[in-house]
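[PROTEIN RECORD]
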Amino acid sequence: MTRFVDRGAVVAAWVGVGMAVTIGVSFVLVIPIEPVFWYLAIPSGLMIGYYANARSERGAGPWRRIVANGLFAGLVTGLAFAALLLVVKALFFYADNGYRDPGLGTRLDCASGPECVYERYLADGRGAALVEAGVTDADSFTAFYWGQQASTAAVLIGYAFGGSLGGALIYGAVRPKPARPGTDGAEGSPA
């Protein structure tokens, strides 16, 4: 055991990172349905909060340790969700070269990176909303865009963290109780 969380919670945190990467690759890169990625952070946190304590074999012990195990693993999982989202967004933001599907028209006339993303938003008819938000050029668009991405990353951390609290509380309520002395582990049967 570490001072604040059990070793099983550390292992669970790494499992949460793997889960976030798997879900992220599936729903941000392969099938880009970003809202699915957001909402899967909740059950991921729930499972990791529960698993952190199951992996630690927390049959007994204080509730604060159970909650700490779950929250630690959930925080790491949420940070992985957020980091993956930001890395993918940065990749597409800075690598955009203005190419468009031939059915959408010609290639955008822009410098690669933020300027092309800004032009893409304008071409999609979002210009009025951007002006209303104070966006008038690629530089102001970049600040606006990354502000939105930071908000989304914070929400992902919150979803996983909140889910992990729920998972820890569920584990604490239904956890296996330690065997009583004089029994072989089965309820009520003497050794």
Notes: The chain has six helices and no strands. The mean pLDDT is 87. Residues 7-174 form one domain.
